[in-house]
């Protein structure tokens, strides 16, 4: 049986770790990592991590989608932000069991309909031919369409840490994962619970 070839890599092929070049990668899918570039969504003030076109280029490299990229244009940065927000709203709707917005579906589908970069075998392994900035964003969009319309859609979660709100795919066997990261938000929650119990015991 010949395995179906994916149009995009299922996970970042090179960089590893939850924090890379100042960006969070805790979601388990690149299409949910892009929304994390607007940090502090549940706080009074958000932090835009894609402030400049150069930041978008850094994120694409940190995400493992390319070893190097040409600096994106201001228009490509605006397009990436639009795609990011559509992905966030769609994933949030999925996590809450709500209907998808027709406008957000249209944005995602418009991107996902474009030709993706072609996988090629080079002297050092896999690379993506024709992977300009737009092509890399197409890869992200296709990953989002496959995720939100596929078998893992029911595993899309929001982190339960009060001020986090990052989206992630729960791939745990039990399906009861609560935090985007055990070493981050999970640890904070455990410390908070430990301190709460200490205060109760001290009364």
Automatic annotation (TrEMBL):
Residues 1-21 are annotated as: Disordered. Gene3D superfamilies: Jann2411-like domain. InterPro entries: ABATE, ABATE_dom_sf, Znf_CGNR. Pfam families: ABATE (PF07336), zf-CGNR (PF11706). Residues 155-198 form the Zinc finger CGNR domain. It comes from the Bacteria. Transmembrane segments: none annotated. This is Conserved protein containing a Zn-ribbon-like motif, possibly RNA-binding. It comes from Myxococcus fulvus.
